[in-house]
Amino acid sequence: MASILFLAHRVPFPPDRGDKIRGWHVLRHLARSHRVHLCAFADDRRDLQPRAQLVEATASRTILWRGKGRVRAVAQALATRRPFSLTAFDAAAMRAAVGDVLAREPIDAIYGFSGQMAQYLPAGSRARIVMDFVDMDSAKFAQYAGEARGPMRWLLAREARLLQAFEADVAARVDASLFVSEAEAALFRKATGAPRVRAIGNGIDTGFYDPAAGAPVSEAGPLIVFTGQMDYRPNIDAVAWFAETVLPEVRERHPGARFAIVGRAPTPAVRALAQVPGVLVTGEVPDVRGWLAAASVVVAPLRIARGVQNKVLEAMAMARPVVASPEAAEGIDHDGWLSVARAPGDFANAISALLADPAQASAIGARARRQVQRRYGWDAQLAPLDALLELEAA
């Protein structure tokens, strides 16, 4: 039985947001045959006390509070000429925790989850190192910079440039670099020329995300649903764009249609959207499956997105018809199971057609679930990991 050091920028359990979902399933996969030692940050006070499932899956756990504010992280980044994505997660206590695990445990492999944790990869270690970047974060910041103005444009362009150099340096010295989709992996290869880059996609637990698993919430009329962490910039941008440019056109044809924004930590800008006719902002809900089960249509109108969107796989697993932007559909085999639209009019047309023909919408949803069951199980997606880490099962 091998020993693995698992570095995570966020405690991976409970798996209640996109990054934690991938992190938890990777950790659990590795823990089935190996001893996993976790070093992770927490940004939710509830995560400081590990749940029973996380304790059961790990041989040891070090969870540290990440309380550094954005202004402080940016100031440190400017002073040290580093990306603020790294200074935000730079902590002496985490370096000490990683060093302690390496000193006391015969670590055979290290799994770094998310680029922010690459700064803790030890130099000169004999352990095999796999860096799961998930997405190419530098490309995301370049996209942000392209839409910003003034000093913020300069700051975001600086972040993109410095972060890409850091990503390339890390990829050159680890044994494998992972990305969530082949498109993301190809983008990284082209931008950095890095070797040993491959894609391992996200999966979905179709036993949990099952249309028969829970009762739909009670909402009258056609219901359009978006799910996600609502203090995350791409999600904020997506729901604002949809509520302001797409929903009015849908409601002209279907006056009773409502748009539910379902997810924790809605910002003031998101909460303000509840003043738009037909918009409902739920905040955190105990179980998102009830809202998905009630949805006439699920939308993913992200204009800034990287990799595979868990929200799309979850909706498809729940047998819901989905209308998504090209960015949100990236990396998902969606021929005939997912509608893709970019312009507001195209989005409105696709949604209106589904609302006008519930039988066809239901048939598309059923096909979507079958596709997810066939292609996107976590076991199938993560099967290559042991070979990449060069570990033998117990």
UniProtKB/TrEMBL annotation:
This is TIGR03087 family PEP-CTERM/XrtA system glycosyltransferase. Pfam families: Glyco_trans_1_4, Glyco_transf_4. Residues 25-206 form the Glycosyltransferase subfamily 4-like N-terminal domain. It comes from Sphingomonas desiccabilis. PANTHER family: GLYCOSYL TRANSFERASE GROUP 1 (PTHR12526:SF600), GLYCOSYLTRANSFERASE (PTHR12526). Keywords: Transferase. GO terms for molecular function: glycosyltransferase activity. The keyword Transferase applies.
